[in-house]
Protein: 2-oxoisovalerate dehydrogenase subunit alpha
Organism: Lentithecium fluviatile CBS 122367
Amino acid sequence: MRRAEAGVNGAQRVQRVTPPWQCRSVASTPNAEKVLFPGALNSEFTNTLEFLRPSTNQAIPTYRVLNQYGQVINQEIGVETGDEEALELYKNMVRLSIMDLLMFEAQRQGRLSFYMVSAGEEGISIGSASALSPADVIFCQYRESGVHMQRGFALDDFMNQLFANAKDAGLGRNMPVHYGSKELNIHTISSTLATQIPHAAGAAYALKLQNMQQPDVPPRIAVCYFGEGAASEGDFHAALNIAATRQVPAIFICRNNGYAISTPTSDQYRGDGIASRGTGYGIDTLRVDGNDIFAVRRATKEGRRLALENGGKPVLIEMMAYRVGHHSTSDDSFAYRQRVEVEDWKRRDNPITRLRKWLEGRGLWDDAKEKELRSRQRKEVLVAFEKAEKVKKPALKYAFEDVWEKVTEEQKMHVEELRDILRRYPKEYDVDQYEGGAESLEELLEKKR
């Protein structure tokens, strides 16, 4: 950090000012009340031997704007969201929940191989995405379908990816629910837990340099989503530490939904959630009620402002929710939690119900509108689903392309071997479901000769 001052003959000279988080090579004086140890700046001396005991401290508070009845807590501030925008947010949350329900059932019918629902967490993904710039770079885990939907990922895009058909942008190379969009600045989701967190820290550092080098372009940040289970991975700690020491413009959004697959938070950690870890790394941190979409939006807006402050710095937001659905279609959550617990959360409080109560309180919504919305959106989802189901699979050649710049000799041998197997056992392999059938392999070999 530098500060310009007037020098001789009016010339400007630059004086270095040490940021408060950097170590200063200053020795402590004999009568100093604070010590400047390189590893703990401004620590006061004490002659009282007392261990810090987290169990005696108050828990970090959870910020909210609406109570569970949909009532604004601070009338002077309000919700800072217009009625029309609130209606659009509500419609998107309902659409997401309908898509989740239908796709879950489709998997149970054997029409999809895998799916993950967002029940109970719709407000986190849709609310946060609505408060970001479209240019901000996003790194999702696998329960952020609402982020994609809010950014403009169409129903056709969802369905094409779920079926891994020829119109899938990933050409069928990823398992279902692992979306991505270059146009929407969303990196493709990876199955490997927590790997997106250091990726986001690195991208944020690149954005910091870009923001400095291109002052005429609106600054951007990186935003990373992950669950509290991913925060138990080493990648989480490495990412937050590098983000803090390099002061990168990033928001790390943790969805704390109570369960990491089958492991409850009581078995994951003993500290005060994930927010306490942010303060440990010297990162501005906030805990938010994830069932309150207005609190999510306000927290994300303020987090983005802080992330761009003084050239950039990381922000951690822990958004509290309850995972109403199973971890995935491969999971039966009632094997490790009581059904009554889930039903109680569904009945008592969730982001869709809370926003609906607010809308009804303002005369913006009623049962008739709800019925019409759900009927229409159900039809739209089913139309997109049935259309995508009929599209052929990507050409077989895509199993080999885009790995290397050119097909290697070893790959060429693999292509020829696959082609020969398909020729010898035509009744065993249905290649007609793939675009171009086995001929696409011939195209690949001809093209690369």
Remarks:
- The chain has a mean pLDDT of 92.
- The longest helix spans residues 83-108.
